[in-house]
Amino acid sequence: IDVAMSRGDFFVPRLAKQRFMVVYGDNNPNGPLTAMAGARRLAWPIRTVCIPNEKAEEWNRLWGIQVQKHFGKLSQYEFLELLGKSMCFVYPTRWVGSARMPIAAAVVGTPCVGTSYSHTMKRLWPSLCVEPFDVARMCELVNRLENDSDFYRTVVMDAWSQLPFYSLESTKQRFLKAT
Questions:
Q1: Is the pTM of this model over 0.70?
Q2: Adjacency order of strands within the sheet including 46-49
């Protein structure tokens, strides 16, 4: 994370957030279909990022999911601005290892419900980790985040407190120690 992110320049408090879900990614390992299924079950408005228009339109036809707004590829700062406005981010990626999306969510103070396959999720959002296709559990967590402001605040502040691990200096020190 860069200096602007670590200073809190992008952090958005819960009261300033809106009730919509960001669905990211145009490939299956990022889990956009799983996230869309959760959004449909929850009846939350959706804003997609990096998903081709024709794919979003096909999902609308097949499942009756209404994408409120579609964004193509966004710069990092544009993505942070969008994510910061969202009440919750569901990122059920099947990638094993680290992922930048949970970090972006922590930077803007938006809880990220994601899979336990990601080391980043385990560090930043341990109480929001689920199995990759467990849509029911994802929905339970999103509902709890929406209705339990203490839980919401706790998971966001816990993630924020772990962000220094991903700073440039911290990453550099881990790399130097490993080599």
A1: yes
A2: 67-71, 46-49, 18-24, 86-91, 112-115, 129-130
